[in-house]
Amino acid sequence: MSIKPRKVAVVGTGLVGSSCAFSLVNQGVCEEVLMIDINEERALGEAMDLTHAVEYLPQRTKIYKSSYDQCGDVSAVIIAAGAPPKYGQTRLDTLEISARICTSIVEPIMKSGFNGCFIIVSNPVDIITYHVWKLSGLPRNQVMGTGTAIDSARFKTFISEYLDIDPRSIQGYAMGEHGDSQMVPWSHVYVGGKPFLKIMEQNPDTYGKINLDEIVSRVTKSGWDIVHRKGTTYYGIASAAVAVIKAIFHDEYKIMPASVILDGEYNEYNVATGVPAIISADGVKDIVEIEMTEDELYRFKKSNQVIREYIARLGY
């Protein structure tokens, strides 16, 4: 009897990619992790280090240096290679070099016979997700980016600090670009099933004084606050990427924010953007269309237009 192992390839073994690999191994998400990097010695070193951790983890995972031509039977590929923005830049400023890097990655992976799911972490993630979708020729359900998954986690964390509640008891999403134009549909933020706006209304002297725009601004700048302190972010985004893969491998039908290709949803076309999506063994099983207020919808569409303008720079 032969049982097919679940394999994940991590392309780009810097701090983000290696953190993704550690999260995969630590949570026992798959049986094999392929480490791929243009710097083969770095990929080998990370694979060796992770292998030495298996003794103290709940499940054995094989981790090894690999190459694009070995991705034919891989179930998912995490793309974490790219150019981090320099001080004073935005994620959008790294587009051209990140797009070139992704082109050099996707083409040989597709030649290997790969037919799994791409999970994009590289920034600017929404534009790169669209780029990978076009390059790969895969159905749109098999290509997704982490998008506003990490922004949603940050936003829920900040709300939880005000309310002194576990952030996992808060439901809500940051949507649109994983960047400066992102927005939060506050009309769909709930705490234990109760609308957050209603909580503010009923507690004018405490929660009623919370500045919603200030929270969104804080979420938008949060990544940079970390970068200025430690150089880059990796634990949070790695956890988000692996949550997507877990939902795929376990066929969870889990609703979570991700950057996905829209084709009529929200009356949007030709864009990859952060929206709540149902993730299952099919990849993006469906896209959840929430009913936003007129102002929220305006902000969401404005953010998508920013993404679309940068997608056009790649010739699409």
UniProtKB/TrEMBL annotation:
Homotetramer. GO terms for molecular function: L-lactate dehydrogenase (NAD+) activity. Coiled coil: none annotated. This is L-lactate dehydrogenase. Pfam families: Ldh_1_C, Ldh_1_N. Keywords: Cytoplasm, NAD, Oxidoreductase. NAD(+) binds at residues 12-17, 37, 42, 68, 82-83, 104, 121-123, 146. The lineage of its organism: Bacteria, Bacillati, Bacillota, Clostridia, Eubacteriales. One of its GO terms (biological process) is lactate metabolic process. It comes from Clostridium polyendosporum. It is found in: Cytoplasm.
